[in-house]
UniProtKB/TrEMBL annotation:
Family: Belongs to the TonB-dependent receptor family.
Pfam families: Plug, STN, TonB_dep_Rec_b-barrel
Gene Ontology biological process terms from the UniProt entry: siderophore transport
Protein name per its UniProtKB record: TonB-dependent siderophore receptor
NCBIfam families listed in its UniProt record: TonB-siderophor
Highest taxon of the lineage: Bacteria
Keywords, sorted A to Z: Cell outer membrane, Ion transport, Iron, Iron transport, Membrane, Receptor, Signal, TonB box, Transmembrane, Transmembrane beta strand, Transport
Length: 825
């Protein structure tokens, strides 16, 4: 056992105790009555919002004021604003901005501001249909139209315009997910720069997203509703969320431990689930596609009899074969949620997700010899299954329950508490190949697991809006806690019959199966963080710091090879972030930032301390740091956003086994330097356009021993391309005989990469083409009915997406066609 510097246990206990106290401040009647509602306080804040389109100016004002705003865009079409400068309350600010426009802002019982036309000469107020743009104006968390988000909360935990965020953030909207026919979260982000979403090929079992060249742990960077999706990347117990349940996906690039604690330095993928709406809507969706893919989905939302309460119920049933012979996918999932507005300033959202995956698709690999290169003049077919159907199993049951509590004390102070509990069980079995046993036969082994995961996380936040002289502050301070426990039992097998991947013939074997070992793995983290977002004229400053206390432990038993072992580690970690941005009045925003991250190692290293004698110990946490410089541009009066960023990223303390030693040390280092370019725009009303380009120079920057004792220093990691690019565009006809027709298409380029960390074999570059065709059948009398056809890998390119080593390479997805019928009513 080893230990970091002494942990202040009294402080830690006090911190954990306070985790359950914050909700009381939002709900105790005495405290609530002691603080006046926000509507009566109208505290003033300083604003310095430049002139521009009235829609953009209102968006920025509502975001900085921290209020909700509903607006029908047609009311603001063509209207300009002189901006807003000086001290204003919320109502006074709206009044100043809307002066002379014929509009006024009205606050409803839920605390949401709405734009309506001013009273006519008869004194009547003409109400217009309204579309809710999201929380804290947002489209920072909630629903939105189109492909271009203007705000995000993922980088700062508060609504912030993307053009004023001093870090790269990309947003995949609900419409983009649907238009591109994404069947997983990994597919939904494939048009985002800097990402590799197929490091294991065409598998759909997990959502792997490797970012900025950091491929290790690429399933451990997923977040749901602002909190880490607490799977265990060292086991098979990594959770997956169906994309039908997701409203938007925010991708934050670079280290982000200041707000989120342990995380990977490449960035994170933050999913936001669909939430209850106060407008009644119902949707049924039916899909059918390649490999007998069948899916039925539903989504119902609206208010209950008490209009302060809204509900949402979404569900998915899926059954499909696979491009690999004999493999199936099945899913039954439901996501209920309820939102309760206790007062104008207090909202509670309860949500749950229940998901059962009886079959979870293919997750195997094939040797480079036969896929990347010809083997005796032959290639292995994409449909070849190297396993054994008698032993193939992957059944996953996962449940999640949680809540989001928000309370606004006044115009200055607000509080939020988010809670999630996760429970998952996995039963798996797989026969896998590990290279050629003879000239044309693959040797095969068996691995199986029975796992149970229990995890919960809670995040408490206080937000303060105030001024100090000429400085306007948005201060967020928080205390979060997470705990994860995974119990695993592994089985193994050898002596299975070899298989010929070219003829399919199975040889003779004498299989031996045995129980390998049991292990209990636990992680506990408490974090205290503070962030100050400061505005001074056109300057935007971001300062953040965090202190974490982490316990990691494991108990390893019933292992015939290594015996019973246990270890635990306690560590304290400080991380920081600083950013600066200047928002020019013409929409240009240059910025620079520095950020840090850390991620504890929950995986044990088997260290040979003497011939045949092993000790098992936990490694030091990996650490990350990044410098980023960039330029963002949002043309005035539009939601278009152009971003170019340069980054210099380092990940240290990678596990490394020196060629002269038989044990691991946390001494390896990886550096990633590159440029990302992204554009999201609507050149005309009927067109959506997304374009991106990525250049990355990634290498092992310290000695890092690989296969056969080769030192990989200076080599590029496997599955990392130097160049990537993508382009997607769609056009909707709104007039003439083709009115209601939508056509779209895209291309994705992935440059050359290495099949192994020793850089002995190149994977060729590949370009994939996608297409979409949709039609709104309400144009021919079928109200609420729409049809869509998606084609992925249109030319049926046969390619290897990536390799983990020369013995494990992964074919990419073959051509896939899917038709979808949607009925909204």
């Amino acid at each position: 056992m080893r230990s970091a510097p002494h942990r202040p246990r009294v402080l830690a206990r006090a911190i954990r105790a306070t985790l359950f106290c914050l909700p009381l401040t939002a709900t105790l009647p005495g405290l609530a009555s002691a603080t006046e509602p926000a509507s009566s306080q109208q505290a003033q804040s300083r604003y310095d919002i430049p002139a521009g389109a009235l829609s953009s100016v209102l968006s920025r004002f509502a975001g900085e004021a921290g209020v909700l705003l509903s607006v029908d865009g047609s009311l603001l079409q063509g209207l300009q604003s002189d901006g807003l400068r000086g001290q204003y309350g919320v109502d006074d600010g709206f009044a100043a901005l809307l002066a002379g426009s014929g509009l006024q802002a009205v606050r409803d019982s839920q605390g949401t501001y709405s734009l309506v036309r001013r009273a006519s000469e008869t004194g009547a107020v003409e109400l217009q249909p309204m579309t809710v743009q999201g929380f804290a104006l947002g489209n920072a968390l909630g629903e939105m139209d189109g492909y271009s988000a203007t705000h995000s909360s993922v980088a700062t935990k508060t609504s912030m315009p993307l053009v004023e965020t001093s870090q790269t953030v990309s947003v995949v909207t609900r419409q983009q997910i649907e238009d591109q026919g994404s069947r997983s979260i990994a597919q939904a982000v494939r048009y985002t720069p800097g990402l590799m979403s197929t490091p294991y090929g065409a598998t759909t079992r997990y959502d792997y997203v490797a970012m900025r060249g950091i491929t290790d742990g690429s399933v451990d960077n997923l977040y749901l509703d602002g909190q880490k999706l607490l799977g265990d990347s060292g086991t098979y117990s990594s959770l997956q969320v169906d994309p039908y349940f997701i409203e938007r996906i925010d991708i934050l690039k670079g280290p982000s431990s200041v707000l989120y604690g342990r995380s990977l330095p490449g960035g994170l993928v933050a999913m936001t689930t669909k939430k209850p709406q106060h407008e009644t809507r119902r949707q049924l969706q039916f899909s059918y596609g390649s490999h007998d893919y069948k899916q039925t989905a539903f989504d119902f939302t609206g208010p209950l009899e008490d209009e302060r309460i809204a509900y949402r119920l979404a569900g998915v049933v899926k059954d499909a074969d696979n491009q690999v012979d004999g493999i199936e996918e099945q899913r039954y999932a439901v996501m209920p949620s309820v939102s309760i507005d206790f007062t104008d300033d207090t909202r509670l959202t309860l949500l749950a997700m229940l998901q059962k995956d009886p079959e979870s698709g293919y997750h195997g690999g094939l040797p480079a010899d036969g896929t990347m290169t010809s083997h005796n003049g032959k290639r292995i077919a994409r449909s070849f299954f190297e396993g054994d159907e008698d032993y193939e199993q992957f059944e996953r049951d996962q449940q999640m329950i949680g809540y989001q509590l928000e309370h606004r004390f006044n115009d200055v102070v607000s509080a939020r508490q988010n809670f999630q509990y996760l429970d998952s069980t996995v039963e798996s079995g797989q026969v896998y190949q590990y290279g050629y046993a003879t000239a044309d036969e693959l040797v095969r082994y068996y691995t199986g697991a029975d796992e149970a995961l229990h995890a919960w996380t809670i995040d408490n936040q206080l937000q303060f809006l105030f001024d100090t002289g000429a400085l306007s502050h948005t201060l967020v301070t928080g205390l979060d806690y997470q705990r994860r426990k995974a119990k695993v039992a592994y089985d193994a097998g050898y002596g299975l019959a070899p298989i010929n991947p070219y003829s399919g013939a199975v040889g003779v074997g004498s299989p031996v199966f045995y129980h390998q070992y049991d292990e209990t793995r636990e992680l506990e983290q408490t974090g205290l963080y503070v962030q100050d977002l400061i505005s001074l004229g056109n300057w935007r400053f971001s300062l953040g710091m965090r202190q974490d206390w982490v316990d990691v432990s494991f108990d390893h038993t019933e292992d015939a090879s290594y015996g019973d072992q246990a270890d635990n580690a306690k560590l304290e970690q400080f991380t920081g972030r600083v950013g600066v941005l200047y928002a020019f009045d013409n929409g240009l925003s240059p910025y620079a930032s520095y950020s840090e991250s850390f991620n504890p190692n929950a995986t044990a290293a088997y260290n040979e301390v003497a011939p045949g004698v092993y000790d098992i110990a936990l490694l030091d946490p990996t650490e990350g740091e990044q410098v980023e410089v960039g330029l963002k541009y949002q043309p005035l009066g539009t939601d278009d956003l152009y971003t170019i960023s340069w980054f210099d990223l380092k990940q240290s303390n990678l596990a490394n086994k020196d060629s002269n030693e038989n044990f691991y040390r946390a001494v390896g280092e990886l550096t990633s330097t590159g440029v990302e370019v992204e554009a999201r725009l609507k050149p005309v009303e009927q067109v959506n356009l997304i374009a991106s380009y990525t250049y990355m120079d990634v290498e092992y920057s310290k000695d890092f021993t690989g296969a056969a004792g080769v030192n990989n220093r200076g080599n590029r990691p496997n599955a990392v391309a130097r160049n990537m690019a993508s382009l997607w565009a769609d056009y909707t006809f709104d007039q003439g005989p083709l009115a209601g027709l939508q056509i779209g298409g895209g291309a994705r380029y992935f440059g050359k990469s290495w099949a192994d960390a020793e850089n002995t074999l190149h994977i060729p570059s590949y370009t994939l083409y996608d297409a979409m065709l949709g039609y709104d059948l309400s144009r021919v009398g079928l109200q609420g009915v729409g049809v869509r056809l998606n084609l992925n890998n249109l030319t049926d390119e046969k390619y290897v997406a990536a390799c983990n080593s020369l013995s494990q390479c992964y074919y990419g997805e073959a051509r896939n066609v899917m038709a979808t019928v949607t009925y909204d009513f």
